[in-house]
Amino acid sequence: MRRYLCCLLSQIAIISIILGLVIGGTPGGTDVWANDVRPEEGHFAPDFTLKTLEGNTVRLSEFRGQKVVLINFWATWCPPCRLEMPTMQQVYSEYKAKGLEILAVNIEPDAQQEIRDFIKELRLTFPVALDTDMKASRKFRLIGLPVSILIDRQGIIRAKDIGYHDWANKASRTLVESLLR
């Protein structure tokens, strides 16, 4: 009986630790939600640092307190990515001066020329970051492409869309405008 009780208590302790990690806490910690970072609406966006196509370094947390950020994970071979990029360009052109930043995060290794050709063809002017080792992509737990994540000025994820999204439609513009206020 004593051995059974000891095993049972050990299993409960392990389950408690795993459950704490799954919901974002730390064993023994009290910060289950307050400082939680996970790639879901209502939570802080995980930080990342990437090189842009031009060779500059961009860090997501540098926009916190300053800009609304639309991150779009994409690839040149992705048809829905190609379709939504012009709608992103429309919104970027309209709201850039009001505080919107777009980071188009490409996940393809060794595809810089294809990316340049893609950008030139679609006449895109927003920054393109390169996630060739997919470290940033893994932080956001991507399960497909494209994935768009809209982050408010405080760094909190306000929308996450998997698949094609028309950023120029009325509902999307209303959402962006509400975050820019």
Provide structural commentary.
By secondary structure, the protein is α/β, with parallel strands linked by helices. It folds into two domains: 1-36; 37-180, 3-Layer(aba) Sandwich (Glutaredoxin), CATH 3.40.30. The chain has helices at 2-22, 79-95, 112-122, 135-139, 170-180, and strands spanning 49-52, 57-59, 68-74, 100-106, 128-130, 147-151, 157-162. A seven-stranded mixed sheet has the order 2-1-5-4-3-6-7, covered by helices on one side. The radius of gyration is 20 Å and the shape is globular.
Sum this structure up briefly.
With 181 residues, this protein is an alpha/beta fold.
What structural class is derived from the secondary structure elements? Answer: alpha/beta
How many domains would you count in the coordinates?
A: 2
Order of helices and strands: HEEEHEHEHEEH
At the fourth level of CATH, the homologous superfamily of the largest domain is: Glutaredoxin
List keywords for this structure.
181 residues, alpha/beta, Glutaredoxin, 2 domains, seven-stranded mixed beta sheet, 7 strands, 19% strand, Thioredoxin-like_sf, oxidoreductase activity, Thioredoxin domain-containing protein
Q: Topology, pairings included?
A:
Blueprint: H1 2-22, E1 49-52, E2 57-59, E3 68-74, H2 79-95, E4 100-106, H3 112-122, E5 128-130, H4 135-139, E6 147-151, E7 157-162, H5 170-180
Parallel strand pairs: 3-4, 4-5
Antiparallel strand pairs: 1-2, 1-5, 3-6, 6-7
Domain Thioredoxin: 39-181
GO molecular function, one term: oxidoreductase activity
Protein name: Thioredoxin domain-containing protein
